[in-house]
Amino acid sequence: MRMTNGLLLVFSGPSGVGKDTVLHELLHQNDSVRLSVSATTRSPRPGEIDGKDYFFVTREHFQEMIERGEMLEYAEYCGNYYGTPAVPVREWQEQGLDVILEIEVQGGAQIKRKHPDCVSVFLLPPSLEVLESRLRHRASDTEEVIQKRMESACGEILEAKHYDYLIVNDTVDHAVEQICSILCAEKLRFGRADADIERMLNYAETIT
Asked: Any idea which fold 8-36+97-206 has?
């Protein structure tokens, strides 16, 4: 059989739900999955590496990428652009690799409009109480910031109904196992059959 293009998976969830930890373990276990790197016009923070944490570009460059249709999705936040460059994602998919976009719900909605064949997964906490506890254990935010994050989280969780799959992050291993199951099942969908299978089905139709 010929290699088919990899899947495009939109991965979202509220702050504190454990997205980074789950994706780190998923990438560690599965060498056929890649995590898309976003582009931004903000300045690098201490320790951040260009091309690994973000592609750091000028505002002019980012706007040129928008005009050339080179962004899968983008948004402006606090005076800076953030978005997903299309070229690396397309190249990985053409190599048969599955590509995960870790993005917020607004960006996820943009991707689903442009690429209705994408797969979307929303990561949920076991409960809102657990989510608040995780945010507090960071010990880096004020009470006001924590409450704002909880309000934002509740708003994002309401958008979960627009996603294809919902995963509760009760344990990292369980969440990773479920994502792997989703990737496997989606590749077996009839509409994603590879060219050789389609020819076999078409040929069978001609002799029945």
From this structure: Rossmann fold (3.40.50)
